[in-house]
Amino acid sequence: MKILINHKISAKALNLLKDKPLELKMAKVAQAQLKNYLKEHEIEAVVIGKDTEIHRGIIEDCSSLQLIINTAENNTNIDLNVAKTNNITVVNCGDVSARSEAELVFAHIFSGARNLHNANRDMPLEGETNFKSLQKSYTNALELEGKTLGLIGWNSVATEVAKMALGLGMKVMLCDRNTEAKTLSLSFANGQRLEFTLETHSKEEVLKAADFLSLHNAPQKQYTIGQTELDKIKPNAGIINVTNGKLIDEVALVKALDDKKIRFAGLDRFEKEPTPEIQLLMNPAISLSPNIAARSVDVREKESLKIAELILNQTNL
C-alpha cells in the first residue's frame, strides 16, 4: 500500500513500519498541491494533521485513496459524507492528548489558586526589592481539597480532569446534556482501583456551586459562558478553557474579572488566534498559555505510535 505521511512521526513509530510491505512517502505536502500529489503517486492512504483538509474535490479526483488517518482533535477537516460515499475509511488518533490537556487544566487551576501567574510576572521585577510585600499580597491562596470542580461538557479530556480532581480530594459536578451519569475508574500505582459515579446537574446548579469551572463542550451559536452565566456564577470562582476560543464571551469575562465577580481565568484558547486581545494578555487575573494543551513530547510520541498502530490495523499487517 502506498501511504503518504503528511505529518510528523517519530523514529520509534517508523521503526514499527519499516519491515512491512508498505511504500511510505514522508513529505509535507502543502494544501494547494495535495490533490495533485495524491493523484500523481496513486496514494492509497494518507496521514494528515489539523491544518490539512480532505474536501470533496480531493476525494472525488483521487480514485486510489482508500484510507485517511487524521491526527486532528476531530474530523471537521474532512468531508466525511463524501468519504463515506466513496468507500474511504476515516480513522482518528482519538484521545492521545487527553491526559496532556487535562494536566494543563490543572496547571491553570494551580496557577490561579496559588497566584503563580502573577508571582512569575512580579518576582523578576520586584523580588529583590519588595519580597515581603509580594509575600503578603499572595496569602489569599486556595487549597483544592474539598473544593468543587464543575465540568461543562464531557469528553476524553473532561474524563481525565475529573479523575485528577477526585484524586486531589475535590468534589466534581458534571453538566452534559448528552449523558445522565458517568462512572469513572481511578487506577493507582499500587494496583488498586476505585470507582466513582458522577451524576449530572443543570448548568445553573454547576455555575452556582463550582469553585472552579472547566469547559469541555463543543461551541454553540451562543457562548457557553456569557454575561448571563457570569451573573449566576459563584463569587470568586475560577474559569478554565483549554478547549475552544468560541466558548467564552471575552469582553464579559474581562469585565467580571475587573469587577471582582470571579477570582481568575485560565485561558489556553482565544476568540482571536493567533492574536488574542491585549485586554486578555495584560490582565493580571488571567493565567495564559498559547494553545499548548495538546502539545507535549509525550503527546507527540503517543500520536506517532497511534499512527503506526492504525496503519497496521487498517492494512491487516
Describe it for me?
It is a single chain. Strand 12 (264-267), helix 12 and strand 13 form a beta-alpha-beta unit. The strands form three sheets. Strands 7-6-10-11-12-13 form a six-stranded parallel β-sheet, sandwiched between helices. Strands 2-1-3-4-5 form a five-stranded parallel β-sheet. Strands 8-9 form a two-stranded antiparallel ribbon. 36% of the residues are buried. The chain has two domains: 2-92 and 297-315, 3-Layer(aba) Sandwich (Rossmann fold), CATH 3.40.50; 97-284, Rossmann fold (3-Layer(aba) Sandwich). It is built from 13 helices and 13 strands. By secondary structure, it is of the alpha/beta class. The model has no long low-confidence stretch (mean pLDDT 96). It is elongated, with a radius of gyration of 23 Å.
Index terms:
alpha/beta; Rossmann fold; 2 domains; five-stranded parallel β-sheet; 13 helices; 19% strand; NAD(P)-bd_dom_sf; NAD; oxidoreductase; oxidoreductase activity, acting on the CH-OH group of donors, NAD or NADP as acceptor
Summarize the structure.
It comes from Haloflavibacter putidus. With 317 residues, this protein is of the alpha/beta class. It contains 13 helices and 13 strands.
